[in-house]
Amino acid sequence: QVQLVESGGGLVQPGGSLRLSCAWSGGIFSLFSMGWYRQAPGEERELVAGITPGGVTTFLDSVKGRSTISRDKAKNMIELQMNSVKPEDAAVYYCNTWPAYDQYWGQGTQVTVAP
Hints:
10 strands; four-stranded antiparallel sheet; mainly beta; six-stranded mixed sheet
């Protein structure tokens, strides 16, 4: 059974950086494209960044140029690095396959952006 556990959220100052990690267990990680998603209060969940098994990436327009997504096949992990964080980046961040499977959603990790 696949389990995804996100970590690394917290309080970030505007203009600061965040680094989120997601650990995968229970399945063949290398077969799946993976994504970071986020959901702000009152908003739909959206894909922030995705990465294929071959390393091809995609980004939400609003984070493009200041974010990177990476995957470590040996550790079965993906990471999201975001720089120049903005107040509108505040949300609960989740990892999942890309596209997402409903049964794989975890608890997410909260990112708060404030001075």
